[in-house]
Amino acid sequence: QGIMLIFEGMKQVFDGGEIIAGAEVAAKPKVSSEAAGKGVFADDLMKVEDIKNGYCTQFLLHKDADASVTRLRAFLESNGDSVVVIEDDDVANCHVHTSDPGMMLSEAIKYGYLTNFKIENMHEQFLARQKQAKGLEKQAEAEEKKDSEFTYAAVDPEREYGFVAVAAGEGLKAVFSDLGVDAVVSGGQTMNPSTEDILAAIQSVPAKTVLVLPNNKNIIMASEQAQKLADRKVIVLPTRTVPQGMTAMLNFDPDLKPEENAVAMMQAADRVSTGLITYAARDSEFDGKPIKKGEIMALENGKIVATGTDLVKMTYRLARSMKKKDTQFITVISGCDVSDEDAEKTTDLVRAKCGGSVEVSHISGGQPVYYYMISVE
């Protein structure tokens, strides 16, 4: 119904109707630590031991011809709680919280045959919700920190250029800062910043022209929306990976005009190939072969090219396969789940496998999700 309402409004505008200005979006409410901890449990602060009937049990009873579920309902209510029994002429949908699901099923089968079983451990659910509450608390603290991360700065007419980049990991943030980026927004795969986040970073840079490097294809659109809202000139360079963003910054020329710089920087970025070593978050399939959850995956420019179980082999083999005849530089960027010692050993193997004509270096990026990023240019 909501989608239909949107489409009807769009059609009215397409047919010449007037666009009605909406009210300003209310600011996102702050979630206090206390509220974050309590909000998941709407009624009170229960303890896991308070749950006496710990199994949520549901099933469909396909009734025998002469069966009446009145006695079954009474049995469920006598041996459990939260009982719901909805029936028609042929089927009864039964739900009960109980300490013994087997006893409930053994009684129910006297009235017909059973299907669609679903038994969930409510103790585990409760503990998971507690964990979620702690996560909400951490998120609230992060939101408060993020809200104060960037401060608005008026444009300095003496300053021509400023830079905003998106990156996750303290090491990568330090790299972009060293390359001249004024504001680094935390973000990347699985943690995309909002338009509001990027806009705040842009507005904190006191330059006449601000160049934005999203460094992820999923963040380009948010960056372009922030570009429209900023009170200074903004150019979004559609960098799709962190290595592209780094190369773009290395090719900035302060003597060029903004548009000329944008072209030159993206031309350099487009010559970079990006390899990623990560893990499968769930069971899936690649090239007709199953991928198990937790298995190592190698991606080249966004496409899966190999899977395996040996992290080191997967890394140097990906680098070797990405190397071309004209390759000059390979940079191995290690993530937060790799120790510096292991990263250096892996880099040495990449150096050994890729020949002496290629300069191989290592950066401790500290990025999540990806064990390694590999920049080849």
Give the key terms:
single chain, about 375 residues, alpha/beta, Alpha-Beta Plaits, Rossmann fold, Hypothetical Protein Tm841, Chain: A,domain 3, 3 domains, six-stranded mixed β-sheet, four-stranded antiparallel β-sheet, 12 helices, 16 strands, extended
Q: Regarding CATH, which class of the largest domain?
A: Alpha Beta
- Give the fraction of residues assigned to helices: 25-40%
State the order of secondary-structure elements, H for helix, E for strand: HHEHEEHEHEHEHEHEHHEEEEEHEHEE
User: How many alpha or pi helices?
Assistant: 12
Number of domains: 3
Average pLDDT, rounded to a whole number, is 87
Content of β-strand: 25-35%
* Structural class designation: alpha/beta
Q: Specify the overall morphology.
A: extended
Largest beta-sheet details: 6 strands, mixed
General description of the model:
- By secondary structure, this protein is of the alpha/beta class.
- The chain has three domains: 74 residues, Alpha-Beta Plaits (2-Layer Sandwich), CATH 3.30.70; 94 residues, 3-Layer(aba) Sandwich (Rossmann fold), CATH 3.40.50.510; 104 residues, Hypothetical Protein Tm841, Chain: A,domain 3 (2-Layer Sandwich).
- It is built from twelve helices and 16 strands.
- The strands form four sheets. It has a six-stranded mixed β-sheet with strand order 13-12-9-16-14-15, sandwiched between helices.
- Strand 12 and strand 13 form a beta hairpin.
- Helix 2 packs antiparallel against helix 5 and helix 11 runs parallel beside helix 12.
- About 5% of the residues have low confidence.
